[in-house]
Design brief:
There is one protein chain. The protein is α/β, with parallel strands linked by helices and 114 residues long. It is built from 2 helices and 3 strands. It has a 3-stranded parallel sheet, with no helix packed on it. It is globular and about 50 Å long. The termini are far apart.
Amino acid sequence: MCKQILCLDFDGTIHSYVSGWQGPDVITDAPVLGAFDFIRDAMQDFDVHVYSARSGLPGGIDAMKAWFLLHGWQSNANGEPEDLTFPICKPPAHVSIDDRAITFNGIWPDLNEI
């Protein structure tokens, strides 16, 4: 049975992003507290995809993979982060978690609130 996709934004959601954007292949900050535990728990029920604006830029995905390994994520036989998917395009996820999103509840937000 295939698991549904959980799409997790990288910068500001998994990666603390304290230093801000420094290029697609520069990732200098630590993980957000609890991120890895959440991801491991989510893997029980979801196929976890990590996506970012940097995903489609040269070096972006390789930098995210290296960052996960640097911060202690287990590697697979290919030397890549185990059990994570890094798509170049935003996947058709069942649900996404992103620090820069608004949940749509059927009522369009007031543009002044955005």
